[in-house]
């Protein structure tokens, strides 16, 4: 295979996390008596950091207030996310095919890496992922490429040896900013037309199609 390392986003790339994310935001809005909860708006923020998502959804930019919202969200997330996250139907077969061909696999996500680790353990697929870089592992988040660059350093890979796969324009921007090859997968809320505005090797409709690029 051309690439020695394949990096993935998590939410809407490897797994459908709609149900727990919507529930966590709903709970936070209700707990804090916030108006304007909208399921579709919440879904469109998936892929953002929680800081940016709450700013987008509430307009609140007071850092201490946002910290309070995030704390409530994370308590609820601990209760609901692991049990309610579902892998896409071709996730396991894609990861297994990559591993069988000697490709290293990493995750670079705006979600807490420790939570991703627990989700993968629960879904019995942690063995396919060699390293996880999450929210807590970087100082600057996507579309800044810090997480991607950290992954390159961890695996001791050159940029031309790496492919990043993501479902969001934010992932596309991060790859572009890091000068790393990118494949957009339309399993999230970013459309093919949206992806066409960014540098990409290919735009695919499902995860297993990336094997044709590798």
Automatic annotation (TrEMBL):
InterPro entries: HAD-like_hydrolase_sf, HAD-like_sf, HAD-SF_hydro_IA, HAD_2, HAD_sf, PGP-like_dom2. GO terms for molecular function: phosphoglycolate phosphatase activity. It holds the Pfam family HAD_2. It comes from the Bacteria. GO terms for biological process: DNA repair. PANTHER family: PHOSPHOGLYCOLATE PHOSPHATASE (PTHR43434:SF1). This is Haloacid dehalogenase. It comes from Terrisporobacter othiniensis. The lineage of its organism: Bacteria, Bacillati, Bacillota, Clostridia, Peptostreptococcales.
